[in-house]
Specification:
Blueprint: H1 10-21, E1 28-32, H2 39-51, H3 65-71, E2 78-81, H4 98-107, H5 113-120, H6 132-142, E3 151-156, H7 163-174, E4 180-186, H8 194-197, E5 201-204, H9 210-221, H10 225-234, H11 239-246, H12 250-268, H13 271-282, H14 286-306, H15 318-327, H16 336-351, H17 356-370
Parallel strand pairs: 1-4, 1-5, 2-3, 3-4
Length: 375
Amino acid sequence: MQFREVIGQEHIKQRLVESFNQGRVPHAQLFSGIEGNGKMALALAYAQYINCQNRGENDACGLCPSCVKYAKLEHPDLHFVFPVVKKGSSSAVSDYYIKEWRQYLLQSPYISINGWVNQLNAENKQPQIYADESTSIVNKLSKRAYEAEYKVMIIYSPERMNITCSNKLLKLIEEPSPKTLILMVSDTPEDIITTILSRCQNVAIPPIKATAIAKALSDYKALDEKSATRIGRMASGSYLRAQEMLVQDEDEQFNFEQFRSLMRLAFQKNVLGLKEWSDIMAKGGRERQKQFFIYAQHVIRESFMANFRTEELNYTSPIEEEFVSKFAPFANENTVTGMLTQMEDAQFHIERNVNAKMVFFDVALKFTQLVVKKG
């Protein structure tokens, strides 16, 4: 990955290049920000740049042997750590899934934990970085580099790192061997344990500018200017979100239909129907359940903003527009806070493995009290 392939983020690119050229390369850095803002793309481009054998002033050459191996994610001095799932009682480390990881990352560096879970076919299992991983990391980073100037370890979603693994890595992060670079990539840095967080230099990656997303959609997806501009604005700084909006995937269609069903049944105060709806929702995996509550919060917010009738504040997709226009009067200042609170609480409980049927039915019943028309 070269910097020129990273969408937007010109200020961050310049900062990374300048820090290297000035000899200031912190050994442990945390690339943090919203999902889909290019954190992983920047980490890959940065790693490729510092190990390029013929680097330019602002970018890697893309042609030297090092760049060719980086493009395939197969450089012997580039290592990855990412959440995985255990199969039975066996140990689980990233190397067991490196083929699937490379395939996933090569499709697009604008990734999400949910996308990786789908790639793993993890179903109800929550991927983690287990304690076994610490031994693998120490072994890799304690050896000298094979070919490159720097050994690079990219750790995706360090917030999912087992506490035992985290504790074993503290000394390595604090005092790594020379020419070692550890890059952590996180959507939720607030969930990383403090002892790890305090040992990393935070590189806060902002949302991608809407104009940069629109240009990328025009250049790479041959989208017309009007559509590209609209999606760029609706993507809220995430190129991953923009990609998802181009192809209405099954999960989003499912979430939209189920949210619409919830609202219809809540308005009707159809308790039996809400119970059946809860049973359907409880059958999905934990990640899918969590994504529903995240999606529901999005629709509720957009319905509330629709009351202001301002085009610049419209972030709905085509399939959502009609529903949002009808639901907007019920998403008023008196009800929207309660709706969002219920969805946020439900998401929290799902993440902590509370019984899904209870969580969904509780939300459903509370929504029958919240959907009061603006008067």
